Amino acid sequence: MKRPTIDSKDYRDAMARYAGHVQIATTVHEGVRRGVTVTAACSVSDNPGTLLVCLNHSNPLNELFIQSGIFALNSLMAVHQPLAVAFSGLDHLDVDARFALAKWDTITTGAPTLVGAMAVFDCRLIEARPVATHTIMIGEVIGIRIGEPGPALLYMDRGYHTV
Ligand SMILES: Cc1cc2nc3c(=O)[nH]c(=O)nc-3n(C[C@H](O)[C@H](O)[C@H](O)COP(=O)(O)O)c2cc1C
């Protein structure tokens, strides 16, 4: 029997209706930093605190997350839209110029954590599973920072929104 499939354009169009909180996943390995704007991230469990982030493994630069074994997930506020744009590569800034747009510190793992983020989850990578074009990175949260409440940055209908 022929395996049922769907058109990937239909999938993207349907997913465009899905509102996602915009976040920046960051890591550092042997002094090299990387940050990627993501919406494919969510909670897995609160005990122990566990979350997942899906990163496209066709981009060799994302290998740094696997090599380091650590990452932070920085949840963005509305004011962080320029950061989201920069870390999605749209401005073609180099890595130092991207990080220079904001203040960063560290919590537990040493991964760059955004000062003023809505929330920061600092993670130890416990599993990395490639599925289709992406690698699901599962992280145990070993450091956390809760920021000030305020409007969050979302992505929906192929554009930024705030809520
Ligand atoms: C709103 C938004 C959400 C994104 N979500 C993801 C995601 O969940 N996973 C992913 O691998 N890339 C995602 N991307 C694409 C990456 O941000 C982009 O490919 C990457 O930052 C390019 O980095 P580079 O210029 O350093 O190669 C998203 C981009 C945008 C604008």
Structure in a nutshell:
This protein has 163 residues and is an alpha+beta fold. It is built from four helices and twelve strands; from the N terminus they run αβββββαβααββββββ. It binds flavin mononucleotide.
What is the CATH superfamily classification?
Electron Transport, Fmn-binding Protein, Chain A
Extended strand count: 12
Q: Within the largest sheet, what's the order of strands?
A: 3-2-6-9-10-5-4
- How many domains make up the 3D coordinates? 1
Any ligands, ions or cofactors bound here, and which? flavin mononucleotide
- Would you tell me the structural class of the helices and strands? alpha+beta
| Secondary-structure arrangement, i.e. CATH architecture | Roll
What is the CATH domain class? Answer: Mainly Beta
Number of helices: 4
Proportion of residues in β-strands: over 45%
Cα radius of gyration in angstroms:
16 Å
Order of helices and strands: HEEEEEHEHHEEEEEE
Percent range of helical residues = 10-25%
CATH topology: Pnp Oxidase, Chain A
Uncertain regions spanning at least 5 consecutive residues: none
Q: Tell me, briefly, the overall form.
A: globular
The description of the largest β-sheet is: 7 strands, antiparallel
- Which whole number gives the mean pLDDT? 97
Tags for this model:
163 residues, Pnp Oxidase, Chain A, seven-stranded antiparallel β-sheet, three-stranded antiparallel β-sheet, globular, binds flavin mononucleotide
What topology does this entry show?
Blueprint: H1 8-15, E1 20-21, E2 23-29, E3 32-38, E4 41-46, E5 49-56, H2 63-68, E6 70-75, H3 81-86, H4 95-99, E7 104-105, E8 113-114, E9 119-131, E10 134-146, E11 153-156, E12 159-162
